[in-house]
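User: Sequence in, structure out. Go.
Assistant: Echoing your sequence, followed by the structure tokens.
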Amino acid sequence: MGFLEVVTLATALLHREKRISCRTLARLFELADACCEDLKFELVHAKRLALEHEDGVLIWAEQPEITIHEHLPASEVCEVRALPQAIERPEPEVPLAEITSAEAERRQLTVMFCDLVGSTELSTRLDPEDLREIIRGFQDTCSKIIDSFDGYVAQFLGDGILVYFGYPRAHENDAERAILSGLGIIEALADFEPKSDRDIKPSVRIGIATGLVVVGESIGEGSAKEMTGTGETPNIAARLQGMAKPNTMVIGSATHILVEATFRCEDLGALELKGVAEPMHAWQVVGLANAEREVEESGAADSFPLVGRDEELGLLLRRWAQSKDGHGQAVLISGQAGIGKTALAETVGAQAKKEGFARTTFHFS
């Protein structure tokens, strides 16, 4: 979770509760001391949305922009100014997924391009209203599936859709979410029935690429502002989409590295992509891999030994020992992406396997 997201959620919580301690905020958002101080400074001094009471208690400022000087006479205690129109209190019910920043951000994104196949040919056969109905149905179907995997529809490009996974909210499995969305779209379009009487079955081509993207408001004047991504990754995703056959999905090498253990892919070799200097290796996603494959078969738990996790590993092994003695245990491992949660769990799982116990693993999207 980014710092700006923490500020937004802390503001909403403070607005609702009216009083909250810094210790509670630190525990809720797992903040280090320095981050907690930065959060307090942002709420009290930068945004003037809170007043700091004794013992680190923050009080919601009914009239923000109040400055307190504890050691001055009562007549000089505070200066009150009206809340500027530009600083409005965020409402707690605003979904986090709708929070976007106007400033450009450098992000690791998985970018997906979806394109309705044959729309140009359809435009010569159909009445414009019938064609609009098909394109609108295609976009609505795709949007619902993309939203279910927390993807962000950046643009509707005529009969195409540009989607970001990893913005504005990042997940540690954004590449998997993108591919699951693509598979869901292909499956949903197979059952898509337009309202017109014509026997038309729309199909889709999907291209996916992963890499660094700078995301920010589109350049230009006027009210039609959109969040656009700049960099090589969106271009590669668009070119891969152009290489895909109808109702198939093609992914780039960076995406394949992230998902090769989860999905079955057919190697397409090195493809010449327009606008890309070097041939790029690409794969066509066939479907999900065998979900029952044991992680230990790949040697993942042995290939990446844990370093500096003796305390956490010791706790898990003690719980495992209690479980073997008949005292059932449940442990939740949580934390930021990339800190080694999976490696920690796999190390304990590998130990159970070595001791001859059967192991069952469940995966959830």
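User: And one key feature?
Assistant: Residues 63-94, 294-300 have pLDDT under 50 and may be disordered.
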